[in-house]
């Protein structure tokens, strides 16, 4: 059955385009849906968390078949957490900075193609995961990636160019951190919990990740010499990251990590300063219906 009723949730703080064009985007989306013979409403979010309230209400009332996150992975996260275990589907129009989940799912990146795809494609049921109870859908982690997420969140402007600048700056001042996993101490550059394969912008941290296998791909990067940074970056952006002296993978349903101090983590690129040194990450199999 093709979905007929669409609620578009537009985040005016995603990427670079929506900041200027959220109002006209909302009008255009409703028009396009009407032209396609569909029922639709577009709402611009008023604050962080608003998208979750809208999605949760849609799931509870079943007034909408699909709630569409119009934005990046942060918006996808907010909408998706309101739809967990509901018959209502998540849709994605990737207008953020990284768009990791959309890219993993093969959703087109141009607006008109993504909208056409959204109206035509079926839905599939995928896994989600939690980090200390906080749902995530793409990738969560600690170390360098969390530091980049924090610096990025502090920038007045989003977008790919900001990501590149912030990542390079972070690489210069980031210090590795010590963690304990299963009674073993390790020094890490980063530790990533991948439900989907990439952070966004085609940075593939776990090219083999499968959204429907009931597992997380845990990627540990240990501190590496400067010369290896170039090779690592090349592999990351060519989907070629693989086990090496500095990189290892584990395919797990859950993992507990301990840190000496409460640490900074990220979930789907959103920074989060924990108030505990214990990090529990778990897969939640088959928990989200998504149009892809
Ligand atoms: N009305 C709003 N006002 C302020 N912040 C908002 C609002 N609605 C959503 N947000 C927040 O905006 C942030 C950025 O959104 P999002 O992640 O979609 O964009 P992005 O960071 O540019 O893209 P990506 O995550 O793909 O890199 C998220 O943290 C989200 O919670």
Automatic annotation (TrEMBL):
Kinase found in the keyword field: yes
Any GO MF annotation of the entry: kinase activity
Cellular component per GO, a single term: plasma membrane
Keyword field: ATP-binding, Kinase, Nucleotide-binding, Transferase
Domain spans labelled DAGKc: 1-135
Record-linked InterPro entries: ATP-NAD_kinase_N (IPR017438), Diacylglycerol_kinase_cat_dom (IPR001206), Lipid_Phosphate_FormReg (IPR050187), NAD/diacylglycerol_kinase_sf (IPR016064), YegS/DAGK_C (IPR045540)
Protein name per UniProt: Diacylglycerol kinase
Originating species: Salmonirosea aquatica
């Amino acid at each position: 059955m093709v979905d007929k009723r669409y609620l578009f949730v537009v985040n005016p703080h995603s990427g670079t385009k929506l900041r200027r064009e959220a109002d006209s985007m909302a009008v255009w989306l409703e028009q396009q849906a009407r032209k396609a013979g569909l029922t639709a409403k577009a709402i611009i979010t008023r604050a962080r968390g608003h998208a979750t309230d809208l999605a949760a209400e849609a799931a509870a009332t079943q007034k909408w078949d699909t709630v569409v996150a119009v934005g990046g992975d942060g918006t996808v996260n907010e909408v998706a957490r309101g739809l967990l275990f509901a018959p209502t589907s998540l849709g994605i129009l990737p207008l953020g900075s990284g768009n990791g989940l959309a890219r993993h799912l093969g959703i087109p990146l141009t607006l008109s193609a993504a909208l056409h795809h959204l109206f035509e494609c079926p839905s599939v049921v995928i896994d989600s995961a939690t980090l200390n109870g906080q749902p995530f859908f793409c990738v969560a982690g600690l170390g360098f990636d969390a530091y980049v997420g924090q610096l990025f969140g502090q920038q007045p402007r989003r977008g790919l160019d900001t990501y590149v600048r912030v990542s390079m700056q972070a690489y210069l001042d980031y210090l590795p951190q010590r963690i304990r996993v299963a009674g073993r101490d390790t020094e890490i550059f980063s530790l990533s919990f991948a439900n989907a394969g990439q952070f966004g912008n085609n940075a593939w941290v776990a090219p083999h990740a499968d959204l429907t296998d009931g597992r997380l791909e845990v990627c540990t990067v240990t501190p590496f010499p400067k010369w290896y940074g170039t090779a690592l970056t090349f592999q990351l952006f060519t989907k070629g990251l693989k086990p090496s002296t500095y990189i290892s993978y584990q395919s797990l349903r859950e993992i507990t990590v301990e840190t000496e101090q409460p640490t900074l983590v990220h979930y789907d690129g959103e920074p989060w300063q924990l108030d505990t040194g214990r990090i529990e990450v778990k897969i939640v199999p088959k928990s989200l219906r998504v149009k892809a």
